[in-house]
Amino acid sequence: MSENKVLNYIDDVVNNVPSDWLKLTTHRLDIYNEDLAKTEFLQHFNNLFEQGNSETSTLSELPTAYDYIRLGHPLSTVLEWSIAKLNGLKADQVISFASRTIPILAVLRKNLFDKKETILYYKGELPESLDLDTIQQTYNYTLKIQKIDSLDDIEKFSGSTIFFQATNDLGKVELNENIDFYINSHSQLGSVFMVNGAKNEAYIPAIQHVRRRETIAMTPQNSYSALQLIQGNKVASFDQTQFESNKKSVLDSIRKITASETKALLGSCGLSVQYAIMMGLIEHAMKQHPGKAIKIIVPPNCYGGTNDQARRVAAAVDNVDIMDLPVDGDNDMVQSTDKVLDEAAKLDAVPLIIAEIPTNPRVEVPDMEALRKALVKDRKTPNGENAIDPIFILDQTFCPNIQFLSEEGILSEVQVISYVSGSKFPSGGKCTAGYVTANRKAAHLMSSIEKHLKLCDNEATPLQTEILAEQLPSMNQRIEDAYKNTREFVNFIKETLPSAKINFVSEELAKEDFTPSVFSLDLPTKGNTDEEREEYKRALNQKLIDMMITEIPNESKYCVSYGQLKGCYWTIPATSTQGTTKEEDKDYIARVSVSPDLDLEKHKQVFADFVKSID
């Protein structure tokens, strides 16, 4: 295929790129086939390439590539397609990353389980944060490295060979049969990972899974810049002074919002931050409590990648295991916490608890005083020694305004690490960046977390930091306004369809500043058997969503979202690609996220019409 034809088409796409490809963090599920994911997008895109059609309107109509840009998005997919075409590879053999080091860790993770050795050859310089001792001692990975002057220096090897180079030319590689994987790294944009040869294609899903859970795809803006680089155009360097100013503004805002004097850290997304927390706390536990078991205590039905990531860490690192923390439905978070910490004490283990408050998707808040007592309770090991104090890792994405970290707060006696997914309220849905900070009692742990955030090259980008600097100052006001809209909508649904079960915070909890703007809706059902009732309910869920997105297309969206600046977002959590929850733990209920800016009366009207249609 003519290289010029590819380059000319890329140039046209860059000039005609739909604005949503650069701006949206979540994408529509009504034009998304989860089983096909980016395959369907690429089939249509490739057809447009063959036709020479790069019109903005046509590109805008392509199926959703991924439902959430952390996983991938149209521009990362186009970048991967372009590089594959230029190197005679298939599109799935190219995977873009925001991180320059995670692709290396991704190969090492698979080779750990496959019991294969790995050699990393490189030209130029490796990222400074690539700490081989930590990779071996904490991540349990083994890696040999060797600097070379020429690809001819690479010899045939029975294990895996990675060739890493820092370059401005992300688009081209010199394929060599002795090289299994290529990583083209760019200091500002991230990296592009390439799989060489059919024998290595089994690595592709494993590498994609790492991108899905421990980092993010190259961001839309950086993918756009990478496409320009392929065209031979220059990319402007970011303004270091402006970046430092934005970062200071963000850290000041987080300090005010959280009432914590601990310096916060900014990551490329919530899961990037969580991965740094996990690995940082595991390394700290290994050093402070050598030889003792480390227990990651996590709800089995939590959504997002939290559950999956925790289990992936436990599978890879010796002496780390999972303990379930049932929190939703008939389970009580306080009782579960007390019970599981008692069990950890009997094992003389290091307890790391991950919890969401409110819970997701059922929006439940525990008795905070009772939770405090369960966390600070004196426990003994079987030999009569004091049990190791728990570290409470709190996902505050659904209530980032609550000052859990305050010295006057209810959890001040507990070691609390708090993190938030920035794609929600912090940025108003404009970027994926997340942040983490701690109360005074846990402040000593932040240096370990920072070490792993940098090792994985998962820090927030300059543009992400700029967006947070713009949006964080208004966050608490947006949370308040969105809550008011949500409460009004919930009350209307209760009046209009009393038989529906709604999971939302009580008025009493709202007075304590638990003011989320998301609720779960369990619609009434009918049928003679459990299967019939479940089937009817799922169909009713879909009917409601279809009516909302059809009648209010500019505001109601079928996608995974929360904390957006405008509109209303509908999804069925258990069918979202974000979770890998066991079938028996899934909730097939509608989750509704309301923003501070929407036509609430129109949404009420459509819901009323829906109720009439099922009478």
UniProtKB/TrEMBL annotation:
GO MF annotations, alphabetized: carbon-sulfur lyase activity; pyridoxal phosphate binding; transferase activity
The UniProt record lists the keyword Ligase: no
Signal peptide positions (record): none
Keyword list, A-Z: Pyridoxal phosphate, Transferase
Names of required cofactors: pyridoxal 5'-phosphate
UniProt cross-references to InterPro entries, sorted A to Z: Cys/Met-Metab_PyrdxlP-dep_enz, PyrdxlP-dep_Trfase, PyrdxlP-dep_Trfase_major
Top-rank lineage group of the source organism: Bacteria
Protein name, as recorded: PLP-dependent transferase
Provenance organism: Marivirga arenosa
